[in-house]
Write a structure and sequence with these properties.
With about 280 residues, the chain is of the alpha+beta class. The chain contains nine helices and nine strands.
Length: about 280
């Protein structure tokens, strides 16, 4: 891993992996995605009658995250997960939503206070980006505050919590403007640009992994259901994405590379790193 590499952790359900005959529910896989190198670093099947909260720590335990920034959606906003990341010498950016009612309110109130006082008495960093196209314009304002322990973490129950972040998305489409704010806790020092890039990179797991699994490899439509087969094939799909993504001699998408590998043994050998 390179220093500062973003490791996005997120879950995905295999929609058709259930078996009504045996009353099996669809399985869920939690994956770790390296945003820069675009590689699947690992995956963990969510145990039956459990959820991602229990699977995420088990996945983190087998990863080398030292010097990396681990990003997780709000389901990972748990003290034990933050503590584990800290113990493994990683940094974190974790979304805060209303499932953590008190924490969410504290973070939201502090940002409101800082903005109302025009940041007087606050240590802060800001960064903005703007994108437009297809009749839509979106401005993202990134804001970080640090030196917030007394308000957000007075009992030091969140290990290495140094800062909080806010992303304000102002979107204009068809003459209508909407504003959305999202909040995060983080171990990063004040650097709103780094924070913003990390948050954006987190969604690479949706666009570059989950979307590809469904569109290129047909995971959502897979009818593989029996026993451990859905999990085993999920792992094989991750391996395939890693191998096809690393092969760069052809400027093709994953789906076309997969087709070419099926038709051309020489190209297949190249994808697998073999020599014929």
């Amino acid at each position: 891993m390179t220093n500062g590499e973003v490791i996005a952790i997120d879950g995905k359900q295999l929609k058709h992996s259930y078996e009504n005959k045996f009353e099996n529910n669809p399985i869920n896989i939690v994956s770790a995605w390296a945003a820069d190198t675009k590689l699947v670093l690992g995956q963990k099947k969510v145990d039956d009658k459990s959820n991602e909260i229990t699977a995420i720590p088990e996945l983190i335990k087998v990863l080398d995250i030292a010097g990396c920034i681990v990003t997780i959606d709000a389901i990972g906003c748990q003290k034990n997960i933050v503590s584990l990341i800290y113990q493994k010498k990683g940094d974190f950016i974790i979304a805060v939503k209303k499932n953590q009612k008190n924490l969410y309110k504290s973070v939201e109130d502090l940002f409101k206070e800082a903005i109302s006082k025009q940041f007087k008495g606050f240590q802060f960093s800001t960064h903005s980006t703007s994108e437009s196209g297809h009749g839509r314009e979106e401005i993202r304002n990134y804001l970080m505050l640090d030196n917030i322990s007394s308000q957000i973490n007075p009992d030091n129950k969140w290990d290495n919590l140094k800062s909080i972040g806010m992303v304000e998305s102002v979107r204009t489409e068809n003459g209508k403007t909407t504003v959305e704010r999202r909040y995060y806790i983080s171990s990063l020092d004040l650097d709103a640009k780094k924070f913003g890039n990390s948050v954006r990179n987190h969604w690479g797991i949706e666009n570059s992994l989950h979307w590809v699994l469904d569109v290129a490899l047909g995971e959502d439509n897979s009818r593989i259901r029996k026993e451990n087969a859905p999990h085993n094939f999920a792992v094989l799909r991750h391996i395939a994405i890693n191998l096809l993504g690393k092969e760069r001699s052809k400027k093709l998408g994953i789906k076309n590379k997969q087709f070419l590998a099926a038709m051309d043994n020489n190209y297949l050998a190249k994808v697998l790193g073999l020599s014929l």
